[in-house]
C-alpha cells in the first residue's frame, strides 16, 4: 500500500501527498507526547497537515503558516485547535498572518474541570480526534467548515470526555512527576499533560471507574433516551491495548 503522507522538506509538519482541489484544507497540531495525535491522522478523510510542537508545547505560528501554504488548494483552511492557551495564541497568530482565508474550530471537550493549569475554560482532550474525523469526512467545501466553526462557537455538547490516572505524568523537561499518588490512590479528571484532576480517591474496580466517568459525561451530554452515541476509549500511553479494550467493555 502506498504511503499517503510525507514530511515537509523543512521537517516542520506532516502533510498529505495528494491533495484534492476545491477541498477546505484541514490542519491541526499540538505538543508532541500525545502520539498518534495528530500526525497519525493525516490522510484521506482526515487531516491534510499536522504540525507538531516540542513535548507538551504548542507548535509555532510559522509551522502553521507553512503548512497552510502547502495544502491550501484554493478553498481556504480550517484550523482545529485544542483549548490550551499556547495553542490558541499561536494558531490565532498564524491565522492572522497566513495571508489567506482561515477559519478555526476550538475543541474544549474535557468535562473534568472548568479551568486548569494551561487553560481558561475546558481543556481540549481526545474528542479532538472525533472532530478531525467528522469534519475531515465531510470537509468538501467552505460551508462544512463554517458549520463546524459555528457549532463550536455555540458550544454544542457534542463530545464530552473525562479521564482517570493511576500514575502521575513526568514531563521530560521537568524530570519529576507533576503530582504524587499513593499506591492505593487514583486521580479522577486528570488532564492530558498530567494536570491534577477534580479529586483524588482510593483505587476502585474497573466497573466503579466506568460508572463515575460515564456519570460525569452523561450529565454534561444529557442525551435523550434512544440517542445513538459514539464511545471513544483512549489511553494516555501507559495502558496496554488489552487493558484499554477491557475498560471500553466495562463502559
Secondary-structure blueprint:
Layout: E1 5-7, E2 14-16, E3 25-32, E4 49-55, H1 61-71, E5 77-82, H2 85-97, E6 102-107, H3 127-138, H4 142-153, E7 164-165, E8 185-188, E9 199-202, H5 206-221, H6 241-250
Parallel strand pairs: 3-4, 3-5, 5-6
Antiparallel strand pairs: 1-2, 2-4, 7-8, 8-9
Helix pairs in contact: 1-2
Task: Write up this protein.
Helix content is 29%, strand content 17%. It has helices at residues 61-71, 85-97, 127-138, 142-153, 206-221, 241-250; strands at residues 5-7, 14-16, 25-32, 49-55, 77-82, 102-107, 164-165, 185-188, 199-202. Strands 1-2-4-3-5-6 form a six-stranded mixed sheet, sandwiched between helices. Strands 7-8-9 form a three-stranded antiparallel sheet, with no helix packed on it. The longest helix is centred in the C-terminal third of the chain and has 16 residues, at 206-221.
* Secondary structure category: alpha/beta
Work out the helicity level. 25-40%
Q: Please tally the helical runs, counting DSSP H or I stretches of 4 or more residues.
A: 6
Distance between the termini: 35 Å
Based on CA atoms alone, the radius of gyration comes out at 18 Å
The whole-number mean of residue pLDDT values reads 83
H/E element sequence = EEEEHEHEHHEEEHH
Major sheet details: 6 strands, mixed
Strand order of the largest sheet: 1-2-4-3-5-6
Tell me the number of strands. Answer: 9
Any low-confidence stretches, pLDDT <50, length ≥5?
none
**Shape assignment:** globular
In percent terms, what proportion of residues is strand? 15-25%
Amino acid at each position: 500500500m502506498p504511503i499517503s503522507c510525507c514530511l515537509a522538506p523543512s521537517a516542520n509538519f506532516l502533510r498529505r501527498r495528494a491533495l484534492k482541489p476545491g477541498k477546505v484544507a484541514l490542519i491541526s497540531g499540538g505538543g508532541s507526547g500525545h502520539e498518534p495525535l495528530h500526525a497519525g491522522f493525516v490522510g484521506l478523510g482526515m487531516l491534510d497537515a499536522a504540525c507538531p510542537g516540542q513535548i507538551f508545547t504548542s507548535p509555532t505560528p510559522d509551522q502553521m503558516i507553512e503548512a497552510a501554504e502547502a495544502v491550501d488548494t484554493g478553498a481556504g483552511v480550517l484550523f482545529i485547535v485544542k483549548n490550551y492557551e499556547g495553542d490558541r495564541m499561536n494558531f490565532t497568530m498564524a491565522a492572522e498572518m497566513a495571508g489567506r482565508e482561515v477559519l478555526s474550530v476550538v475543541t474544549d471537550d474535557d468535562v473534568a474541570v472548568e479551568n486548569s493549569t494551561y487553560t481558561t475554560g475546558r481543556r481540549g482532550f481526545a474528542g479532538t480526534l472525533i472532530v478531525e474525523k467528522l469534519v475531515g469526512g465531510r470537509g468538501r467545501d467552505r460551508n462544512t467548515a463554517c458549520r463546524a466553526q459555528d457549532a463550536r462557537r455555540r458550544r454544542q455538547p457534542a463530545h464530552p470526555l473525562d479521564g482517570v490516572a493511576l500514575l502521575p505524568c513526568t514531563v521530560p523537561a521537568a524530570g519529576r512527576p507533576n503530582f504524587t499518588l499513593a499506591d492505593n490512590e487514583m486521580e479522577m479528571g486528570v488532564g492530558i499533560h498530567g494536570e491534577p484532576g477534580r479529586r483524588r480517591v482510593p483505587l476502585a474496580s474497573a466497573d466503579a471507574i466506568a460508572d463515575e466517568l460515564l456519570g460525569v459525561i452523561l450529565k454534561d451530554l444529557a442525551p435523550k433516551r434512544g440517542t445513538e452515541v459514539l464511545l471513544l476509549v483512549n489511553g494516555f500511553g501507559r495502558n496496554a491495548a488489552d487493558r484499554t479494550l477491557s475498560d471500553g467493555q466495562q463502559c
